Amino acid sequence: MAGGDERGTTERVLTLLGLLQQRPVWTGPELAERLGVTPRTVRRDVERLRALGYPVHANQGVGGGYQLGPGQDLPPLLLDDEEAIATAVSLLVGAGGAVTGAGDAALRALTKLDRVLPTRLRHEVRALAGAVESFDIGYPRVDSEALMVLARACRDEVEAGFDYPSGDRTRRRRVEPYRLVASDRRWYLLAYDLDRDDWRTFRVDRMTDVAARTWRFRPRAVPDAATYVQEGVASRVYPHQARFLVHAPADTVRVQVPASAAVVHPRGDEHCELISGAASLDFVLMHVLLLGHDFEVLEPPELAARCHTFAQRLRAAGMEPKNSAAPAQVPRTSTGADAG
């Protein structure tokens, strides 16, 4: 019976360690609720972790709680089965990804992960690794150091600066960085531009001389990062924007349209709204037409007129030519007897 209690304590302490690794600070009552124990038991388990060499700090007062500190002797990160598989998949993607230098680093990390995985998971990860190939699709590579500088600035809530092309010149931008968003093998930064006093989306591969500053900022009410960046990439950056009501489910249309080309919102079970932009409204119209679904133009009004123009042209192209000449008749050749 004592052996069972010991195993239960060990599993609980490992679960506590996993929770401490998930986020910076936990209060005692929060940990007690997650573990299903009393705050006193949490304090004893924290002492067990400290005895094993884990630097667990306890801070009192408002905003205080338990925090897992860094250290050279910190034991390895613990992963459950799902986390281990997800990490392996991410490393496989990174091995052929769009971050400069990430390929070799991802392969090294995958090799280390393979050595410490349980046997049952090692076979699954090796099978996955053996089945995955990648190819270079030509997207610009992102500097891994720039990506890490921005990620740390987002985490620490400090201002960042970088050079960014604007028109025919490059300008220095000062921003409050909030989120990094990945889409279509590109990385974007959602940030509040301090010089323009508005939210902006920046492509990380276009940045140079990226640096975090020492000034901390008070977080603003941030828009949904993924939605804001997608709408910017698919629509707002273009001179013309269009909205359509497509007579097909949103999930069906999302499969047909890249996330960087259009934003798709469900409108009931059988319809969706598609928002896109381009240098030419005709270009957007033809792409929506080629989806193969009935649709209606919501805006702009002039796009509805373009629909009528296209319809007339297509109808005319499908009609029989008006002045088609009859096929030329090949004259019959005389026989030798007639010639005589």
TrEMBL record:
Top-level taxon: Bacteria
Keywords attached to this entry: DNA-binding, Transcription, Transcription regulation
Keyword check for Methyltransferase: no
Regions of compositional bias (Polar residues) in chain numbering: 331-340
Region of interest: Disordered: 318-340
Any matching Pfam family: HTH_11
Keyword Iron carried by entry: no
Ranges for domain HTH deoR-type: 9-64
The protein's name in its UniProt record: Helix-turn-helix transcriptional regulator
